[in-house]
Hints:
Layout: E1 3-9, E2 14-21, H1 25-33, H2 35-39, E3 49-54, E4 61-67, E5 73-84, E6 88-95, E7 108-118, E8 121-129, H3 133-141, H4 144-152, H5 155-164
Antiparallel strand pairs: 1-2, 2-8, 3-4, 4-5, 5-6, 6-7, 7-8
Amino acid sequence: MTVISSEKDVEALTLTFVAEFDADAARVWQVWEDPRQLERWWGPPTWPATFVRHEFYAGGSSRYYMTGPNGEKARGWWENTVVEAPHRFEFTDGFAGEDGEPDNIMPEVRGSVTLEEQGGKTRMTTVSTFTSVEQLEQLIEMGMQEGMTLAMGQIDALLAESMVA
């Protein structure tokens, strides 16, 4: 399995995922940078994502929705604050309303992703930082930890396709 650890830290207000891939950092970076590849793994298998905007540069923003098994839509957004290809980026992530724009009622989360090459593999560390224990627990209860683990579990197949092609 791709994800080798998932850790909730209530004191630091973080949820950290560590995953390893049999590909170099530049190739793993592409699964974040290319919206068509990102769509193939960002949502859990039963909630595939569609990115209607993906400006993957510092100051850029993304808008997307995930479609559930019964056709329901969960909308989200990113605002990218740091993008340093192919090793690190940071963003603010949140829920969106029907118009695709940020929903200020739901919590925002700060995210950071680092890609480190180690012995022919790439280790991806994704950290979500919350503003309170309540926010952390709310998103865990909504399925964030399980959903991200399932979503990241789809990356290996995507990377394997490019190795064969």
